[in-house]
Amino acid sequence: MKFGKEFKKQMVPEWTEAYMDYNGLKRILREVRGYKQTKHPATHNKASQKKPTLDKTFRGLHKEASNLPSKGDIEDQVIDVNTLQQDGSGQIYKTKFLRQSEEGGEVEVMFFRKLDEELNKVCNFYKDKVEALMHEAAVLKKQMDAFIALRVKVENPDLNGSSLKRCYLSNVSSKMPPTSTTCSRDRNPGREYVGLIPEVDTNDDHQQEESTAGPEVNSVSTAGCGCDHREEVNKDDYKEDPLKILEHVKINNTLESPISTIKGVFKDSKEEDLSFNKEELRKVEEQLRHVFVEFYHEQLRHVFVEFYHKLRLLKHYSFMNLAAFSKIMKKYEKITTRRAARLYMRIVDDSYLGNSDEVTGLLERVETTFIKNFSKSNRREGMKLLRPKAKRERHRVTFFSGFFLGCSIALLVAIVLIIEAHNLMDKEEGTQYMENIFPLYTLFAYIVLHMLMYAANIYFWRRYRVNYPFIFGFKRGTELGYREVFLLSTGLAVLASAGFLANLQLDTDSSTRDYKTITELVPLVLVIFVLVITFCPLNILYRSSRFFFIKCIFRCICAPLYQVTLPDFFLADQLTSQVPAFRSFELYICYYSLGEYSRRQSKCLSHGVYNTFYFIVAVIPYWLRFLQCIRRLCEDKDAMHVYNGLKYFSTIVAVIIRTAFELKKGMAWMVLALVSSSVAALINTYWDIVIDWGLLRRQSKNKYLRDKLVVSHKSVYFVAMILNIALRFAWMQLVLEFRLRSLHKMTTITIFSCLEIIRRGIWSFFRLENEHLNNVGKYRAFKSVPLPFSYYETDNDDDDDDDDDDKND
């Protein structure tokens, strides 16, 4: 694979604009080559056959500054690079091309001007990110100190004063052997904790160890707290005892629950967050035990994993840009036959991008601290947590997906042939079958179609580098690809089609009509089977993704008691397009609980309770989304959430009136249904295109679209807008009752319900594309993780600044 394609593939999607514009520089070099070929074709062809003098290794990745020649030693010097110092923005590099008077020299001047701009851009971005991570490293050090102090105090409630301080010092020592890291009274060998290394300055490995050990080293006895090991630590770094550390710490409520939300609503405004002082420590000693410590242990572990991921992304950013500068200079030498790469790469190596070691040092420190504190000094287990393996594409997934697809198509063809062979649609039995059994199987059709649309969306998100795992918050290495989702959808399609075919065959065969009661239990068995697989706690069929889905469903149901995240309201929007599926599920309850399956009579529609829930079920998805808007309004204080809530409220009114017309009929209900549905459709269409998709911008570079587009073909966006409008109003035929003679009413309803699911799938792609572009505009590539502890008084301002940085990442 060519470097340009590999460079684009390896980019962090949210930082694309911060990378060196490799393709832009290549375009300028193509102009230089075209000029050379036009003016000196023979000389250029002869020179192009020569091997380049530049070493094939990346100069920016193998720094050997001592062996590099000075400017005066470079034969036939072409460029002169000046380094300018500016206040607040670091160094600025400016290259002067010394052969500008030659023919075509102005094109090469443009190349080096562009090259300097890219180098300055990359260095400034890298420096800003490194400074932010260094600040976060200092915050993590405080988090670790507070956690160790809390653990020591909880596990040793009877100790105080110097004994407690000796326990704390023995826990935070960075050189403590794994066999003596416990300072509890029971000396539990399974509890191993080592404090975060005090110093975060990582410019030199030798200085790291000196700053950790310190010049004044004292022997601290830990016999008073149950530890007979003598360890050397620097007392000056830990002058405060654990009690005083805890006096400046308060616990953040990182574990959100409906109960905590309700308590927060009725909480007195004068009541402060949980904090530690001398009076409250007595209660803490009685209430906090090992379970409490383990919870914050897991919370901190998650914080460290995310921080390590940030460091790896930044290190990879530096590596790829250094390689890009080396490659582009190699191309320049090959095209122009001028020797300028060595001098320029020396400047790149001496820049902040090539000369900074903070990220590498932090990576080593985080690995050491994490392994000692969170994996019981087991390096293999610790590195598995820090560096989860990339998900491998398995051939058997592709094979079974194709196999199930072929089986489902064959089953559907067999179903159509049986219906046509027996002329079921022309008989009374066929009409009863469509009213009783067919709606039960449409539930599976809606689910399968939605999964297929999701698989298609994943395919195109990956193709256009939309970082959907980060946006949805999937755990790295556990997100499903389009092949896995397609496998699940086709597998479910085979089950549903086989059940429907078996039910139809047994129902039409005269020899099996005595077993109708048993045959009509087939759809119920299928539903139970799907629910059992979905909630199965065993590690089968992508358990992590199933539990993530269940968690999001639970948070949607409990709205507004949970803080609303993007996966929550995105899933709630998907549920609004599955109203027919909810009604099918209601039909299951009525059909089997009333014994309807044994009588083959449609009594559900005439049942008062069923009709009441027929209203409620249709409103539930929109109501949940409305409550989520209310919760976001209370948190963000943004008026847009008010308008969004009114949009869903108008849809609720339209659904209620349309359902009333469906049950009661009448011209008055029809007029009300048309008016309310039209208003709701217009509002929803405008919101979809303008707000959710970010299109139809008046002052956009792309007319009637937006400035940044993921899909290069602009016509795709116009087609998507037209389809969204057409499909929004497609279900209006249910009010106007335009029916085709060749189709049954249930078939017509199913078709238009499927069209709504397709419209939602199209909406999902462009909605996530717009969210991705918002992250790109803000360079937001890191997930914000809540910290378990926060410092107040003098450190309060620093913590607030850190929270702002997390939001901007």
Widest sheet, order of strands: 1-2
Taking the sheet with the most strands, its summary is: 2 strands, antiparallel
Distance between the termini: 31 Å
Strand composition percent: under 5%
How many DSSP H or I helices? Answer: 32
Give the overall average pLDDT: 77
Structure description:
It is globular, with a radius of gyration of 33 Å. The two termini are 31 Å apart. Helix content is 64%, strand content 4%. Strand 1 and strand 2 form a beta hairpin. The chain has 32 helices and 6 strands. Helix 4 runs antiparallel to helix 5 and helix 17 packs parallel to helix 31. The C terminus is likely disordered. It is mainly alpha-helical and 809 residues long. Strands 1-2 form a two-stranded antiparallel ribbon. The protein has a two-stranded antiparallel sheet with strand order 3-4.
In brief, what are we looking at here?
By secondary structure, the protein is mainly alpha-helical. Helix content is 64%, strand content 4%.
Architecture blueprint of SSEs:
Blueprint: H1 3-9, H2 22-39, H3 41-48, E1 79-86, E2 90-97, H4 105-155, H5 161-172, H6 205-213, E3 218-221, E4 230-233, H7 242-247, E5 249-251, H8 258-265, H9 280-287, H10 290-336, H11 341-350, H12 352-355, H13 358-374, H14 379-386, H15 395-422, H16 428-436, H17 438-463, H18 468-472, H19 482-508, H20 516-519, H21 522-534, H22 543-557, H23 566-576, H24 579-593, H25 596-599, H26 608-636, H27 639-664, H28 667-692, H29 715-728, H30 733-736, H31 745-777, E6 789-791, H32 796-808
Antiparallel strand pairs: 1-2, 3-4, 5-6
